[in-house]
Amino acid sequence: MKRLRLPEQVELLPHVGRWLLLAGLVAVLAGSASALFLLALDWVTGTREAQRWLVFGLPLAGFAVGWVYLKVGRGVEAGNNLLIDEIHDPKNVVPLRMAPLILAGTVISHLFGASVGREGTAVQMGGALADQLTHVFKLRPEDRRILLMAGISAGFASVFGTPLAGAVFGLEVLLIGRLRYDALLPCFTAAIVADQVTTAWGVHHTHYLAGLIPAVSAWTLTAVVLAGIVFGLVGMLFAQATHAGAAVVRRHVGYPPLRPLFGGAAIAVVIWFGDGWRYAGLGIPVIVEAFVQPVPSWDFAAKLGLTVASLASGFKGGEVTPLFFIGATLGNALAPLLQLPLGLLAALGFVAVFAGAANTPLACTLMAMELFGAQIGVYAGLACVVSYLFSGHTGIYRSQRVGHAKHRHTPEGMKLGDVPAYRDRQRAAQDAADAPRQEP
């Protein structure tokens, strides 16, 4: 007897229901964790501003966090890169201790004035908490990949209040040039619900005003392309400087807890004696300022330097909010040169430097529209794409893979961290081929 086949749409219902349930659970976990984190971050930031002498505790705080990670956190120290590696090549469930370790480490870093962000913390908490459902529901490796992506989306969306950007970030950050459409439903569900959960806990996100958005013209488009080139180069500089700085610190300081001890001492001296309070912590007030009035033209460079020093020496947090600071203040400085409204260039820098550094132009375009309104979408899309192209095959996430090369040939599947060595081998081979043959 011929078996009756149900319509595809009916067969799809259990699949959809299953992922709505899983993504919803991930969202509740990640959204609640982000709410706790953001409330703690507000408290420690206020405490640090009221008690500025705390900055002198930065070296000891860094040593303590480094020691704890050395003793119990070695398996999770790779952070976001560990999550990306597990999605590409599933092996072991991410240890649950990643969540409390990164939460405590980031809060302590901010309390004492390290120039770090918050995205890394939210993403790692979201991914680690999501992965705990792997054993509960006995998920296959392929389903586990999607669950981790949903955790990344939920963490990103809830910490910034941008559900669409968060959903696409979880899809886009894994492979340069490619998206995984089989994870669309889980990532969007997790991001949207996680944002609502964080809001339900009473957390409010900072609002930015981009101001007047000029009509599209030949000059505005040209100016945005020029700005996008600069944003991409600065994003590339940030990523390369962070990785190079970390390598130098590791090479010269063998004992991991001593790295943030020495780095924290140098940062504390710069902040206290160099009047660098603008660049401590997240720097949200300066970002807000960059949208409404001119700020010192060196703000972006100072923040870049202190953030590179903080991350390279081992302080916990993330790169994204510092990149927002760098981008907004850089856009502020470029506005009079490009004859565009100050708020517009600050908004474009806010998202485009991050787009170049993280290789996520689509997520950053959506973020601009969520934060500044849909009218900025044309300019944001152009700036983010140009920044993405001009940042080259570099990025803040060394485990990010090449899905489709931007321009120059790069093998598919290669980690960004392996690209420099590949380029060196290519150049060496080309030099050997071009060298004149010696006469016998």
UniProtKB/TrEMBL annotation:
Membrane topology note: Multi-pass membrane protein
**CDD domains assigned:** ClC_sycA_like
Q: Keyword set for this entry?
A: Membrane, Transmembrane, Transmembrane helix
- GO cellular-component term (any): membrane
Where does this polypeptide localize? Membrane
Record keywords: Nucleotidyltransferase included?
no
One Pfam family assigned to this protein is: Voltage_CLC
Q: Provide the transmembrane region boundaries.
A: 20-41, 53-70, 146-171, 216-239, 260-280, 300-325, 337-359, 371-391
The organism's place on the tree of life at top rank: Bacteria
Q: Does the keyword Transmembrane helix apply?
A: yes
Which chain positions lie within coiled-coil regions?
A: none
List, in alphabetical order, the Gene Ontology terms for molecular function in this entry.
chloride transmembrane transporter activity
User: What name appears for this protein in its UniProt entry?
Assistant: Chloride channel core
